[in-house]
TrEMBL record:
<dbReference type="InterPro" id="IPR004360">
    <property type="entry name" value="Glyas_Fos-R_dOase_dom"/>
</dbReference>
<protein>
    <submittedName>
        <fullName>VOC family protein</fullName>
    </submittedName>
</protein>
<dbReference type="Pfam" id="PF00903">
    <property type="entry name" value="Glyoxalase"/>
</dbReference>
<feature type="domain" description="VOC">
    <location>
        <begin position="1"/>
        <end position="129"/>
    </location>
</feature>
<dbReference type="InterPro" id="IPR037523">
    <property type="entry name" value="VOC_core"/>
</dbReference>
<dbReference type="InterPro" id="IPR029068">
    <property type="entry name" value="Glyas_Bleomycin-R_OHBP_Dase"/>
</dbReference>
Length: 136
């Protein structure tokens, strides 16, 4: 059901150092980092998890995914069409667009996601990790 979770932090360097130490005994480390240049704004962040893929993110900035809501979480979608349907349904239900459905290659080549801010300001996402031909 949940694909990943992200928290906005006030001091990125301090929080990254904290979580690197706190999560190491659990076998989790930074497996991906995003710079402000990669996000196209001021956001920066990193994702922790097992070597395969990050499941817990922290980030800081003044725009974009990690700063638009109090919490960021993503639901796993079985297909790209399901991501599109999530986005449309969330907007129709009163959500605010925070990133139209599309590829996010700065995460990985097949990362297809859509973002909506819910009525409480949380940034929710649906994501499909499958290649286009496999997600139909």
């Amino acid at each position: 059901m949940l694909d990943h979770l992200g928290l906005r932090v006030a001091d990125y360097a301090r929080s990254r150092a904290f979580y690197e130490r706190a999560l190491a005994p659990l076998g989790f480390a930074v497996v991906m980092e995003l710079t402000a240049a990669e996000t196209g704004g001021s956001d920066q962040g990193c994702g922790f998890g097992p070597p395969e893929r990050p499941h817990f993110w922290i980030g800081a900035g003044t725009d974009g995914v990690m700063s638009s809501g109090a919490v960021h979480f993503a639901f796993t979608a079985a297909s790209r069409a399901a991501v599109d349907a999530f986005h449309a349904a969330a907007l129709a239900a009163g959500g605010r667009d925070n990133g139209a459905p599309g590829l996010r290659p700065h995460y990985h080549a097949d990362y297809y996601g859509a973002f909506v801010v819910d009525p409480d300001g949380h940034n929710i996402e649906a994501v499909c990790h499958l290649p286009e031909d496999a997600s139909r």
